[in-house]
Amino acid sequence: MNTQIIDGKSIASEIKEELRTRVENLKSQGITPGLAVILVGENPASKVYVSNKKKACEYIGMKSFSYELPAETSEKEVLDLVETLNEDTHVHGILVQLPLPKHMDEQKVILKIAPNKDVDGFHPQNVGALSIGLNGLVSCTPAGVIELLKRSNIEMQGKHCVVVGRSNIVGKPVSLLLLREHATVTICHSRTRDLESVLKQADIVVAAVGIPKFVKGSMLKSNVVVIDVGINRDENGKLCGDVDFESCTNIASHITPVPGGVGPMTIAMLMNNCVLAAATQGGTSN
Ligand code: GUN
Predict the structure, then answer these.
(1) Ligand 1, pocket-test mutation among 169, 262, 274, most atoms within 8 A of CB
(2) Which of 133, 165, 205, 227 has the largest CB neighbor count within 10 A?
(3) Is 203 touching ligand 1 by the criterion CB < 6 Å?
(4) d(CA 214, CA 211)
């Protein structure tokens, strides 16, 4: 079988082009979408993510407001900043880059973000909305997985989707989104018994366990669609996913590579959430 590689980078570019047009339209109505990004401390990976987010804003014509605070910043200062941004009509989206330094309660900070500006979709109100099918902001990586499948013309309705991983950021929300697309969903995790027999039944696998090359081709049935959400380093320090890519070629009908699969979609969906939030909030800008 000829396994088709899903090109997340090119699909993400397509989305960003569409968003540029939508931003132009919003601007002509007097609304310039704005994203505020808060980064506390010196985490090198976080700095790269934040810089990529700012570049993406610029590319699609949005404003970005950056708050890079020292690691010693108090929790109260961050909470006060979030409150100010909640009230600021130029800011339509607020993103607090995680992880926060240990002396802060991440949940407390997330709870402070106005749900209609919570472009990460982490606020319990947005999580709850997702679980009962109400409108809300959906977290970016899970939304990116669904968009990749849709734009690759992969039907989800009635399919057996096996999600490996149950995190709040990916496993749980992606399972709810797949359910919303009328898939039959099984969630597996580190304590699942006989994971292989469950995986063998999957029409679509979403791997989000955080273990390098955990899912092997030998665990899968032929023609399966494999979506790899993992970002790890292998024994040689090379970037790799939660799926052993090589062993899946010629078994899977479609597979996402790492890098260049789900990763670029996360930022594209963040931009999409900012544009949605701006369109919903309207108000003054420029
Ligand atoms: N840190 C790693 N991934 C993410 C993300 O998607 N959002 C935020 N805010 N922080 C992160």
Answers:
(1) 169
(2) 227
(3) no
(4) 6
Per-residue tokens: 115: 């749900």
What are the catalytic residues? 53, 97, 120
Q: Quick one: which of 63, 100, 58, 62 has its CA closest to 81?
A: 100
Report whether 8 contacts 260 (CB < 8 A): yes
Whether residues 89 and 177 share a domain: the answer is no
pLDDT in tens, 18-41: 999 999 999 999 999 999 999 999
Model confidence over 89-111: pLDDT tens digits?
999 999 999 999 999 999 999 99
What's the gap in Å between 277 CA and the centre of ligand 1? 18
Closest ligand 1 atom to the C-alpha of 98?
Answer: 10
The enclosing domain of 65 has a CATH number of 3.40.50.10860
